[in-house]
Amino acid sequence: MSNWVNVAPLEDIPKLGARVVRTKNKQAEVIEIGVFRTDDDRIFAINNSCPHKGGPLSQGIVYGDKVACPLHSWKISLVDGRAEEPDVGETACFNTKVENGVVYLELKD
Questions:
Q1: Which of 40, 33, 24, 39 is nearest to 81 (CA)?
Q2: Number of domains composing the chain
């Protein structure tokens, strides 16, 4: 079962920027999800933790459909959560949608 959560109006997420959504997983642990807006208004959501050293991806530099981690500049795809070669690793991705100018994030139960 899924649950669509209202994140924010699209205009509240800056182009080439991000917002953080905090929620709990099945183990009741708090997780952070970065919701990113590209220059062409596409919206992506990935785990806010870099697979390398756990850097906060929402504080990184967004370009194209990638984000550069603010700690060590690992490039992470916003499309599939994978690190760009030669680095290896990946982070979880989440579905998003924009309806009537509002960004929604899908959380799975």
A1: 33
A2: 1
Give the domain CATH number at 17: 2.102.10.10
pLDDT by 10s per residue, the chain, length 109: 568 999 999 999 999 999 999 988 778 888 899 999 999 999 999 999 999 999 999 999 999 999 999 999 999 999 999 999 999 999 999 999 999 999 999 987 6
Interatomic CA distance for residues 3 and 79, integer angstroms: 21
9-25 b/e with 16+ CB inside 10 Å = b? ebeebeeeebbebeeee
Domain with 11 in it: 2-108
The number of residues making up the chain comes to 109
Query: Are 92 and 46 within 8 A, CB to CB?
Result: yes
